[in-house]
Input
Amino acid sequence: MAYIDFISHLHKKTKRDYLGRVQEIPKAEAATIAKKFDKDYWDGDRKYGYGGFKYDGRWLSVAEKLVKHYNLKPGQKVLDVGCGKGFLLYDLLQIVEGLEVAGIDISKYAIENSKVENENSLKVCSATNLPFEDNYFDLIISINTLHNLPCHDLEKALKEIQRVGKKNKYLVVESYRNEEEKVNLLYWQLTCESFYSPEEWDWWFNHCNYNGDHSFIYFE
Output
């Protein structure tokens, strides 16, 4: 298991007003709406989530790094756990024609509004019960998803990812290294249920026998 950062360059491009986030609207109200993972979360006002989750090619750089690092080839199988609208899977297919991709997400809205090219590859499903055979995928990715699960579901999801994947797995979760980053995370997040330091995340990985790669998102 290795720490590999493929995503922080995207995360750091966004300017965040942490105090403004909690002053604009009661946080409980915003979180209640966001946790429905419906239109308001993806394509509504920014205070409820993404503020418009449209394809703009920004995930292509991440896809290129994944392809290079994991040496992806036509015919190999890739699963995205928490795929959202499937933008990353779409970009992977632009780089490696012939990949077999699949994506699952808890959001019916995201799946119904995904990239048309991915339409038959995505399904509404929980990460806690993946409908795939053991050791089925050559690569499993999960970006900014698992921290949205409470601890009992987090354990199930990590074990499911371990079950259906072969050697290569890569996940990204939110974390904090100090009290300032912890407060920023709490101010900014809307859907997060699992708040852990890197050491605590490592405990979870070991506890669930997760042997893939990972990286963390920090709110500096």
The two ends are 25 Å apart (CA to CA). The chain has a mean pLDDT of 96.
